[in-house]
Amino acid sequence: MKTHELKLDVKYFDDIKNGKKNFEIRKNDRNYQVGDILDLKAWDPSSAMYVGEYNECVHHYHAKTLKVKVVSIFKPKTINAKKYLGRGYRDENYSVYIPNDDVFKTLREYFDTDRLPVGYVVLGIEVFQ
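^ thats the sequence. predicted structure below, dont judge the formating
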């Protein structure tokens, strides 16, 4: 199990914190594994600054942070092949359900595509902080 410190676009921060968004789309350059911990720090890409509790620009040590655990990993073959099938994705243990529409909405908003880019994965996550 590894801990990864990552930037999280501030527009997704509250949805993850409140459990509305239970996945992250990430480049798999860190070889994510089930059980890994992600320290997600609020980041405003328009100002290229971290965001603090009062939405002020701060050093990364003072950024709003969420601790989440990776509970499942969905690879491009699974996401892209099931694009039009069913309403979402379940991991092999049926412990995580990720709505199909939410994944593709995020792909369109953030990546301007309806397919998971090569080298990326969808991480099923669970907030534990």
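The longest strand covers residues 65-74.
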